[in-house]
């Protein structure tokens, strides 16, 4: 995972993320885009996540278990409803699965040369002008919608 990803990672903390944010600001990156992926855990696209997992996990039994974890039903009002998107909030695998999906965002930001920090589904991108911030917001929103199938 990216060195600028801080959430749900051993040895990483919110304090470290804040220190990195301060460094970015002190180095002149003072125009900030704050992304909060609303209802992120409820909106995770299963097919995309499983596709990303297949790149990293070669054990078909483990992949099947993860697929079962993702699609496990919800008990609402005495009825079980199947889930076709989202990860179980509070589930033991959900933090890891969220980092696997959002690592794609981290890679995209790094490839574009942006300074950023991400803590779980909250991401801040640091830029040197408002004009750049508006341009990046449009293009990153498009990436999140089209490539990650979120928002």
TrEMBL record:
Keywords of the record: Antiviral defense, Magnesium, Metal-binding, Nucleotidyltransferase, RNA-directed DNA polymerase, Transferase
Organism name: Phaeodactylibacter luteus
Sequence ranges assigned to domain Reverse transcriptase in this UniProt record: 1-151
Pfam families: RVT_1 (PF00078)
Family: Belongs to the bacterial reverse transcriptase family.
Protein name: RNA-directed DNA polymerase
Listed GO MF terms: metal ion binding; RNA binding; RNA-directed DNA polymerase activity
Keyword Repeat: no
Catalytic reaction annotation: DNA(n) + a 2'-deoxyribonucleoside 5'-triphosphate = DNA(n+1) + diphosphate
SUPFAM superfamilies xref list: DNA/RNA polymerases
Gene Ontology biological process: defense response to virus
Coiled coil: none
UniProt keyword Protein biosynthesis, yes or no: no
EC number assigned by the record: 2.7.7.49
Domain of life from the UniProt record: Bacteria
């Amino acid at each position: 995972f990216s060195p600028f990803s801080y959430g749900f990672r051993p040895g990483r903390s919110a304090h470290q993320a804040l220190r990195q944010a301060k460094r970015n600001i002190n180095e002149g990156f003072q125009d900030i885009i704050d992304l909060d992926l609303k209802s992120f855990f409820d909106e995770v696209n299963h097919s995309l996540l499983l596709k990303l997992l297949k790149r990293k996990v070669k054990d078909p039994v483990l992949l099947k278990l993860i697929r079962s974890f993702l699609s496990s039903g919800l008990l609402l009002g005495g009825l079980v409803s199947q889930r076709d998107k989202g990860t179980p909030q509070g589930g033991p695998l959900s933090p890891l699965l969220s980092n696997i999906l959002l690592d794609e965002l981290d890679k995209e930001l790094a490839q574009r040369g942006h300074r950023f920090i991400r803590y779980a589904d909250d991401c801040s991108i640091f830029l040197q002008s408002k004009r750049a911030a508006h341009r990046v917001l449009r293009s990153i929103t498009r990436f999140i919608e089209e490539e990650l199938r979120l928002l």
